[in-house]
Model the fold of this input.
Amino acid sequence: MTRIADGAIELVESTGDVQMVQLARHLGVAPSSLYSHVTGRAEVIDLARLRLLEQMEPIGPGRDWRETVASLLRQLTAVYAGHRRILPLIFTTSFTSERAIAVYEPMFAALLEAGFEPQHLRLVVAADEAQAFGLAQGLPAPAMSDHIRQTLPAYTASVDHSRYDLATATEFSVAMVINGLSALKACTTPQ
Done:
């Protein structure tokens, strides 16, 4: 399965997509041979997701919720930044691998232990994932013209005073997510 996942990642990085026939050709096997190991494209993408998640340092149990959320966000960002072309595929395919889901378990446990509501846990993961996805993509080149400079001074200031640095942007996002969750926790915790 590792060979299939690695082949899928390689194929997506070179072509931007993965289809079963192309993957079989890339791996040097017959499509029927590939189907004897996986059920289809969705499973291949989930295997590729798992392979990416396996590059991360496991988050141990018993850590503070802030540490787990921050660690996950930092690590997802680093992994995703190295594999930008596969991100649209993994973000439109459901998780099916228990091993991939298990990556998030220490964070779920830490959040529950800290008193977060169970219905918020997957939303926290979604927030971390969305932040990591956006950070990995970087900022698009800003639109700028003389007219924009004259009519949109706040936007112009934002463009003139920002340069995208992944590490700085990641720490900014970590602070936003942690502070936002702290505020949510304060609002939902019974006094």
